[in-house]
Description:
CATH superfamily of the largest domain: NAD(P)-binding Rossmann-like Domain
GO molecular function, one term: methenyltetrahydrofolate cyclohydrolase activity
Oligomer: single chain
Number of helices: 10
Helix content: 40-55%
CATH architecture of the largest domain: 3-Layer(aba) Sandwich
Keywords: Amino-acid biosynthesis, Histidine biosynthesis, Hydrolase, Methionine biosynthesis, Multifunctional enzyme, NADP, One-carbon metabolism, Oxidoreductase, Purine biosynthesis
Radius of gyration: 19 Å
Shape: globular
Mean pLDDT: 97
Low-confidence stretches: none
Number of strands: 11
Binding site for NADP(+): 165-167, 231
Number of domains: 2
Bound molecules: nicotinamide-adenine-dinucleotide
Subunit structure: Homodimer.
Largest sheet: 6 strands, parallel
EC number: 1.5.1.5, 3.5.4.9
Amino acid sequence: MTAEIINGKDLSTELKLEMKAEVEALKEKGLIPHLTVVLIGNNPASKSYVKGKEKAAAETGISSSIVELPASTTETELLQLIQELNEDTSVHGILVQLPLPEQIREKKVIEAIHPDKDVDGFHPINIGKMMAGEDTFLPCTPYGIITMLKSKNIKIEGKHAVVIGRSNIVGKPVGQLLLNENATVTYCHSRTKNLQELAANADILIAAIGRAHAITADYIKEGAVVIDVGINRLENGSLTGDVDFESAKEKASYITPVPRGVGPMTITMLLKNTIKAAKGLSNIEG
Ligand code: NAD
């Protein structure tokens, strides 16, 4: 079997076109969705992620601004800025780019963002709502993964989903969303004893580890759906996933590539969340 590729870049383009039309309609009602991104310090990867978000927002007509702060910014200064953004009625979504300099506690920052403007979906209130299956801002990468599965009408209900990785931003929430869709979910992580055996039992396998090509064909059941979240930079500078794509695609039924897989979907779902925030805060129906 050669797997069908789920191209996140193409799906993102489609979704952004839909969003562009939606934003135009909102503008006619006087609402311009606005995302403010806060970037602290000079981390080149963070700068490039923020640029990507700005570009994608512009493509859909969402207005965005970047607040750049020096690496020496104190926690108090950042919390003060977040407070101002919380109160600013022209700002609908607030995203503080992670990682933060070591003098700033991530938890404090995440908890300071008003849950109604938390377009990253990291606030404990929004995580709680997601767990309860309530309507809320879903964290962007897991939301993107579920959207990719649904775009191909892949059945989730009753399937055995194995998630490798248990971070708060990817592994844990994607498992929860799959559970919300009635999958039977197994979480694996760095202390899991029989990883290969568990993975090879998956109907839907999500790799979110951060180790290039850790998941070879031996970890994949014939016909499984394989979602590769990993973004790893090789010595030659190219990007690659956690899955050994070439061998895996011969066994999987569907597979996501890296690049052009989950990555573009993450930004796209951020834009979806920004529109949702703008509508919610303005009480405007879509
Ligand atoms: P993380 O480092 O916070 O978590 C990695 C997880 O992998 C941990 O839970 C750990 O237990 C598990 N793990 C580590 N070694 C393992 C092993 N040998 N066997 C089994 N499990 C193991 O990383 P993260 O933030 O969840 O990101 C994971 C990967 O996804 C990274 O490559 C990251 O760059 C990428 N990522 C991609 C996107 C995207 O938009 N595509 C978004 C976020 C993260």
